[in-house]
Write a structure and sequence with these properties.
Length: 159
């Protein structure tokens, strides 16, 4: 993106240590301000429309992934497993850490950022699991042995 090119150009400048610290602090603040304004969904420095990728739906167990391996604005879609003729090509809109979270946490992220509720094979298989976020699950594991009388409400409704 033009912003990352500008930051790289700034890195190449020969500056006094104090000026370097001020510039680095300014750049750090700029990135924080961008993230505060756009949130996680738009946590990127550029955008583009890629015809093949736009045909790929989301799955929490994707059979393909996207990347920019040569850093030249050319998007690659790579199969993660054999894909049969006629089988849908699915990528994940979640990063690898988010895909390991509970179904409820994944749904919450997808709903907030992409406005849909996932019905991939992984989510369907986990449909009977409690509607708690990954953080709530971790708290429950830490509090093992304590009675579970608090009811957990579902934070999501169907679209």
């Amino acid at each position: 993106s033009s912003l990352s090119q500008w930051v790289h150009a700034c890195d190449a400048l020969e500056l006094k240590p104090q000026d370097r610290e001020q510039l680095d602090a300014f750049i750090d603040q700029l990135y924080k301000d961008i993230e505060a304004a756009t949130g996680e969904f738009l946590n990127c420095e550029g955008s583009g429309l890629f015809v093949l990728q736009s045909c790929c739906n989301h799955s929490c167990v994707p059979n393909a992934e996207t990347s920019f391996p040569e850093n030249n604005f050319l998007l690659h879609v790579t199969a993660l497993e054999d894909i049969k003729p006629g089988e849908e090509i699915c990528i994940s809109y979640l990063d690898c850490c988010q895909r390991e979270r509970s179904r409820h946490s994944r749904h919450k992220i997808l709903r907030e950022n992409y406005l849909f509720v996932c019905s991939c094979p992984k989510c369907l298989a986990e449909a009977d699991e409690p509607n708690v976020t990954s953080e709530e699950e971790e708290e429950e594991e830490e509090e093992e042995g304590e009675p579970e009388d608090a009811e957990l409400g579902d934070e999501m409704t169907d679209v």
